[in-house]
Amino acid sequence: MAGTSPLWVGLTIYALVTLAPTLIFWAALRVPSVLAARRRRSVGVPSRPPIEDLVADLRRLRRNLRAGGSGSRVRRVALQSAYDDVLLEVCEAVGVDTARLAATPEQGSERAFARLVAEADLESSGIELDQAGGGRAAA
Fold it and tell me: Are residues 55 and 102 in the same domain?
């Protein structure tokens, strides 16, 4: 004996019964990750490393530059370039004007002078570039 309801009603009920659990589980797995992504976006990820890490990198590069002597010219130029990049980052993080250092060419006495001015401004803002004892713990 056939049912009194039309065929489309039966097929709709069958589709709901079979698809509903799949859709519910999919939503249960998907919604928390979407909400977590929104929460991360709203909090905001810092655009640069903490100032302590930047200053530690700056001091390490400064020590390597002062040690000098060993290595090729390519290594020295790369080390100087890395030092300048980190110096600019620290200056921006602290709020020191970086226009002079950023505008000077990569090599030459103008760059060295701009670097000295930026270092002096950093030290006057309270960042100690040369730690007491050369960065080592006292014995």
Answer: yes
